[in-house]
Amino acid sequence: xxxxxxxxxxxxxIRVLDLEEGINHYKNVLGLIETGxxxxxxxxxxxxxxxxxxxxxxxxxxxxxxxxxAFKVADQATLDxxxxxxxxxxxxxxxxxxxxxxxxxxxxxxxxxxxxQIELYWEKTDIGTPETYTNPPPWTDSAEHxxxxxxxxxxxxxxxxxxxxxxxxxxxxxxxxxxxxxxxDGKTNLAVWLSCSIxxxxxxxxxxxxxxxxHHVSFLLESWEKVLRAADIMSMNKVSIDIGPTRHxxxxxxxxxxxxPSGNRFETFCGGYQSYPDWKPVTWTWDEVGAGIxxxxxxxxxxxxxxxx
Length: 309
Ligand SMILES: [Fe+2]
Hints:
Keywords: Aromatic hydrocarbons catabolism, Dioxygenase, Iron, Metal-binding, Oxidoreductase, Repeat
Number of strands: 17
Structural class: alpha/beta
EC number: 1.13.11.2
Bound molecules: fe (ii) ion
Order of helices and strands: EHEEEEHEEEHEHEEEEHEEEEHH
Strand order of the largest sheet: 14-15-16-13-9-12-11-10-17
Strand content: 35-45%
GO molecular function: catechol 2,3-dioxygenase activity; ferrous iron binding
Family: Belongs to the extradiol ring-cleavage dioxygenase family.
Pfam families: Diox-like_N (PF22247), Glyoxalase (PF00903)
């Protein structure tokens, strides 16, 4: 097994202002599959091509935003080792017991200097059907309902101290820098895109004075045509679209940014290149930051740097 340590993004818990509106959005517009509800009133979803029980959890709250973003790690030994490494680095960790999230094992939760809660876990119930594993069809009816992404792919978080965050992800969790955007001084990072895999990013951060903010949670589609179809479905359902369909310079992904009914931005995207840990990071300079973020407009829209939840 070449991939060890942190494997991939696993789940995001998102706050919504109205649960029923949120359920309708995540189930019928985004097209995720509802997989459970718990005693706290949280609702669980997974994408049609995901096997594990949940990747998106929503709960009703007075403010929108993200409670935590989690990564699945290889096994129990990895979870224990990474917890020790995080503590040795100087971070406080907390063990959340198995079952606190439905069908999910013990989680290690820690706060990072940007003000976000990150979790690691290794066990989650595989609810793939027999058809998932033997002579599978290329897609199922669920792949046609709503936007129907393949998977939760990554998130972009806004907060301060992104140098320290980058160091934690690189030195403790084994991520590597794939791309970064420099500020006007030509030295300081405005944004970093980090990978634990061969994806162009598994998590990204933008420097922002207010801690703990969510810019977007992103969902992968299979083709540029499906990005266009996603835009159609958004308009058919009067979803507030931030920008797109367009292309990012950073990662080369094709994209739409839009908002759930509570104002949490989400992305439906396709493409981007594959990278490896020997990748030399791509740099975007301040004068080209517009093209880096939105390749066709070549300028940032007002919302990109200011609207977060
Ligand atoms: Fe993204």
